[in-house]
What we know:
Layout: H1 2-25, H2 37-49, H3 67-92, H4 108-117, H5 120-124, H6 137-160, H7 164-171, H8 187-204, H9 236-248, H10 252-255, H11 259-277, H12 285-307, H13 311-317, H14 323-326, H15 333-345
Family: Belongs to the ALG6/ALG8 glucosyltransferase family.
Organism: Tupaia chinensis (Chinese tree shrew)
Keywords: Endoplasmic reticulum, Glycosyltransferase, Membrane, Transferase, Transmembrane, Transmembrane helix
Amino acid sequence: MAKMKARDLHGKKKEELLKQLDDLKATSEWTLDYPPFFAWFEYVLSQAAKYFDQEMLNVRNLNYSSPRTLLFQRLSVIFTDALFVYAVHECCKCIDGKKGGKELTEKPKFILSALLLWNFGLLIVDHGSIRWNSFSFVRVLSLGLVILLVSALSLGPFIALNQLPQVFSRLFPFKRGLCHAYWAPNFWALYNAVDKVLSVIGLKLKLLDPNKIPKASMTSGLVQQFEHTVLPSVTPLATLICTLIAILFLPEEARNLPPPKLTDPRLVYIGFLGYCSGLIDNALRRSLHRQLLYVTSFVFIGYYLLKRQDYMYAVRDHDMFAYMKSHPEDFPEKDKKSYREILEEFHPVR
């Protein structure tokens, strides 16, 4: 009898714990905004945040704001920026000994630090990173060990708690839609626009029932189910097929380039296709719509440093950020002033 009571008590406690976990899962409409390893960074910040304002750590306290909370958030940004400056300093050590001119602007260390610290995209968007190496089995193995270690630290606690499905459900929110938000345009924005135009025409001609028009927004960025009105709704598998087809049809002029000229642009082209038409649009787009642009800009910065040519690739890549300057009507009023000031102050040197 005692064992049965103990089992019943254990079962009730387990049910209560599962119920509490279910309640926590539904506390917010927002999904995991960065890879799981970012959760460790947030945990570290929370250890310091509790000394500023304990209420900001309450997971149910959505949209909470206070002067101490704002102070902590700003200090955390300053700290991470300082960490980035230190990382750039360490990175510049790798090119010690490289020959340069007598002028400061001709020294490789100065050029590399300026390109990283004053990168035009980083001045507008919050984060971006890219690493590139020449192919080497030793480096591949060492990189693989690093990836395994990072993955173990990142996903290990979730695997131990049997919560990995919850991570993936938040990490790949396909229900966010093909465009994710108005400020993250891609190929599917054209598809959605055509569907929108056809639905408006259908309503005007009374060919569609207004009550059957989807209410969910295709550009809100929230997790909600959206179905196209006229055109077929696009599935994750369809985006993958479209990406593979686009890669197969690599531009003919790129195919005809000699290997030294082709390698980096071709890889960037394939990666950028994933941004434009692939799964990134309705899964990874939560932050990678910015990072994918840095894949192109940072790779071509390195390409220019190595070959001293094609610098316009990196400059043109940042023109994506300057879209707002010529199309202000597409952006909310609250964003125009800050972006316009940055764009006018830090316009890329051509």
